[in-house]
Amino acid sequence: MEYNGKSHNEIYKMLGRGKETEMKKSHLQERQTIESEGGFLELEYYLVEEETKSQAIYGIGVKKKHSFQGKLRFENEETGGLSAKKETVLQLIEVLARNYITPMCLNEVVDDYL
After folding, report:
1. How far apart are CA 4 and CA 67, in angstroms?
2. Which residues contact 39 (CB under 8 A, 6 or more apart)?
3. Distance CA 81, CA 86 (A)
4. Are 95 and 110 spatial neighbours (Cβ–Cβ below 8 Å)?
5. Rounded distance, CA 6 to CA 12, Å?
6. Burial of 79 (0-12, 13-18, 19+ CB in 10 A)
7. From CA 4, how far away is CA 9, in angstroms rounded?
8. How far apart are CA 110 and CA 98, in angstroms?
9. What pTM was computed for the model?
10. In a 3-state reduction of DSSP, which class is residue 112?
């Protein structure tokens, strides 16, 4: 979602959120390992809750663990400040998990979804 050409993360930073917040991460869902020849891929999705002085703001995190030909790689991405409605973000996490969205695509998919 954009407003005057700015993404939700840019707006979130402009509002000064994050300076006096406490961030909590809740493990929600871990996808089963996807086996492939020579490796595997694991994706984990979690809720990010940021407590401000006035309310909680929710976001999403995705962790990826990828093994291929003996090399193990990790990738992580979070997008905060999506909604004050926890249920809305939980529904989006389910959509991401069902479609095996990786950390690399998280922000783009969230922007399209919202």
Report:
1. 41
2. 66, 67, 68, 69
3. 11
4. no
5. 10
6. buried
7. 13
8. 14
9. 0.71
10. helix
Question: Dihedrals φ, ψ of 30, to 5°?
Answer: -120, 125
CA-based end-to-end distance of the chain? 6
Token pair of 33, please? 């390992």
How many angstroms separate the CA atoms of 71 and 114, rounded? 35
User: Which amino acid, 9?
Assistant: N
Q: What is the pLDDT of residues 18-74, one digit of tens each?
A: 444 456 766 666 565 677 778 888 999 999 998 888 888 999 999 999 888 888 999
Question: 75 — alpha (psi -120 to 50), left (phi > 0) or beta?
Answer: beta
